[in-house]
Amino acid sequence: MGGVHGVCYGMNGDNLPSQSEVVQLYKSNGIGAMRIYSPDQKALDALRGSGIAVIIDVGGSGAVANLANNPSAAADWVRDNVQAYWPNVIIRYIAVGNELGPGDMGTILPAMQNVYDALVSAGLSNSIKVSTAVRMDAITESFPPSHGVFRPDLQQFMVPIAQFLANTMSPLLANVYPYFAYRDNPRDIPLNYATFQPGTTVRDNDSGLTYTNLFNAMVDAVYAALEKAGAPGVRVVVSESGWPSAGGFAANVENARNHNQGVIDNVKNGTPKRPGQLETYVFAMFNENQKPGDETERHFGLFYPDKTPVYQITFPPN
């Protein structure tokens, strides 16, 4: 397995199935990849021999800072959370930071370097890639897509990170949410364009490329930013994308199904700028009743905690 379409395994719920049940739910739905937001030992144990590939986040900003400041901590982290499971668990990427703010971004590259060096020492740096996951607001001028560039206040961090990814042949992880773009600007963004429905075509006059959905336009803006950062060969992995099924503006089952099925079906075609497969992780497996923030945050799941689907979705064979 280990496919190009995955689902993020959120754990911010007090009512979720056991980790071994969750792995079985992935397998029974043909979901070939998973993202976990910390090195959860029960989840990693349940993944042994499953054939499901995984992105492991190192944890929050404190964990990233610890890895940045201490090469031996990075070596210990790799020993405990990678070597202890490899190769029974197919670890694809280590995410050093998820949507860290400008105040914490200075720690990302040193932490990535230390984790990478630990993987080199363990003989795993060709098999497992080190990256970080960025929010879409790290990109400015995202319309038209060819104008995409890393935000001026983040360039000092993102340009060296992009160079590191190029040098280590690693992808950039990007969290791409048409939902939030649409919610914040419904006047200018048609709902059908945001949810992979037909009816809207947008042309980028500078590149000559045409777009029929917002998701591909957003991903290509990330590619444009990487090019401007001097890293045109770095590929993008969409490490999160989703749409809430309840709890707020335009958050309903129909829109969520249309968007998430569109994301899954889009995987095999890639984007106008980068045709081919686009590895993508839908957020998230379950509705998470303890997730903080807006009410919509608790309604991104494909499944209820009792493992029944929130709506029907089909994962094609990997």
Can you describe this structure?
This protein is α/β, with parallel strands linked by helices and 318 residues long. It has a single domain, classed as Glycosidases (TIM Barrel), CATH 3.20.20.80. Helix content is 33%, strand content 16%. It is built from ten helices and twelve strands. It has an eight-stranded parallel β-barrel with strand order 1-2-3-4-5-8-11-12, surrounded by four helices.
Q: Which radius of gyration do the C-alpha atoms yield?
A: 19 Å
The share of residues in helices is: 25-40%
Low-confidence region ranges: none
β-strand amount? 15-25%
Main beta sheet, described? 8 strands, parallel, barrel
Distance between the termini: 6 Å
Q: Quote the CATH topology.
A: TIM Barrel
Q: What's the mean pLDDT score? A: 96
Return the string of H and E elements. Answer: EHEHEHHEHEEEHEHHEEHEHE
What is the count of structural domains? 1
Q: Judging by the overall fold, what is the CATH architecture?
A: Alpha-Beta Barrel
Name of the top-level CATH class: Alpha Beta
Task: Indicate the structural class.
Answer: alpha/beta
Count the beta strands. 12
Note the topology:
Elements: E1 5-8, H1 19-28, E2 33-36, H2 41-47, E3 53-57, H3 61-69, H4 71-83, E4 90-98, H5 108-121, E5 129-135, E6 139-140, E7 149-150, H6 155-167, E8 172-175, H7 178-184, H8 191-194, E9 202-203, E10 210-211, H9 214-228, E11 236-241, H10 253-266, E12 280-283
Parallel strand pairs: 1-2, 1-12, 2-3, 3-4, 4-5, 5-8, 8-11, 11-12
Antiparallel strand pairs: 6-7, 9-10
